[in-house]
Amino acid sequence: MNHNLHPIFRGLTTGEYQELTNHTRIHEKEFTKGALIFQNADLVTETGIILTGSVHIENTDFWGSTSLLSEVGAGGVFAETYSLSHEPMMVDVVAASDCRILFMDVTFLRDNSLSGYSWHQKMLSNMLSISVQKNLTLSHRIFCTSPKTIRERLLTYLSSQSQKYGSESFEIPFNRQQMADFLNLDRSALSKELGKMRNEGFLTFHKNSFTLLHPALNESH
Prior knowledge:
By secondary structure, the chain is α+β, with helices and mostly antiparallel strands. The protein has 7 helices and 11 strands.
């Protein structure tokens, strides 16, 4: 693997990457869509580094209801907080598509005897940057699920996606059930509200492709 292709190894020279591999365990594994990668209550020391495909971070409550917390695509990482804190996993990690994952034991980051190595400092900095970005992603979900009504949640989420892609037309990474899980809504209620919003001229959609519209402008033409 070309280590420069993944953000977690950003800035590492070939020599520094080799030193890193000499101080930790790194291995690669492929998963098919739907496969359980990590499970709630697992104790892990490895961080998953997504080379291709994507994974879903899910939470299942006592009664079996599943909430989709986030999707992590190629270039992202997962389980880094649990692998560093030695706390049991509180979520499941499921392959959202066929994917290839690089697993790296990150306990070396806690080894102060390695702090003098340039690669160690770069890995700490990269891990911090990735963790900050993930915190922003989780904050985004909280922001989208805070409104009380279904429409408000949809408007908040879809507006944020439009802003993210810089276009009124975009694709979301979820099907209807996953979208409902992400927004903490009932699927049928979500679909019904989307239908109303389409009829009222707020948007058009087909599967996971959306185009946002301005109802007032539409009515004036």
